[in-house]
Amino acid sequence: MPSPSRPFVVIAEFRVKPGSLDAFLDLAHDDARSSVAGEPGCRAFDVAVSESDPLTVVFYEVYDDRAAFHAHLETPHLARFRAGFPALIEEERPVRFLARTASGADAR
């Protein structure tokens, strides 16, 4: 019997322009909420702001598998985010892809 695939994790990080954080977070929150609500393969989509650098924003996204992430790339809410965020950032750092091996939520 084949083993189930591990959840696919995406970490994206942005450095936002001064004065643009609220607008960036509006776009990010729309993408995150829409992803979890409307994509069966999206398990989690967290948006976090660095305590040490409040203009650094990190996305932590968890998908059932790589195929679910690829489906996310075709969604209208991601298209809205992609259309709006470039004017709001100074830097988009390289996206990281990982295979999750465990979650503390599994202990509940």
List low-confidence stretches: none
Order of strands, main sheet, comes to 2-3-1-4
Largest sheet: 4 strands, antiparallel
Share of β-strand residues: 25-35%
The residue fraction in helices comes out at 25-40%
N→C terminal distance: 27 Å
GO molecular function: monooxygenase activity
InterPro entries: ABM_dom, AI-2_Isomerase_LsrG, Dimeric_a/b-barrel
Protein name: Antibiotic biosynthesis monooxygenase
Domain ABM: 8-97
Summarize, please.
The protein has helices spanning 21-38, 66-72, 76-84; strands at 8-16, 42-49, 56-63, 89-99. With 108 residues, the chain is of the alpha+beta class.
Topology:
Blueprint: E1 8-16, H1 21-38, E2 42-49, E3 56-63, H2 66-72, H3 76-84, E4 89-99
Antiparallel strand pairs: 1-3, 1-4, 2-3
GO molecular function, one term: monooxygenase activity
Domain ABM: 8-97
Keywords: Monooxygenase, Oxidoreductase
Question: Can you tell me about this structure?
Answer:
Residues 8-97 form the ABM domain. With 108 residues, the protein is an alpha+beta fold. The chain is 31% helix and 33% strand. Helix 1 (21-38) runs antiparallel to helix 3. The radius of gyration is 15 Å and the shape is globular. The mean pLDDT is 93.
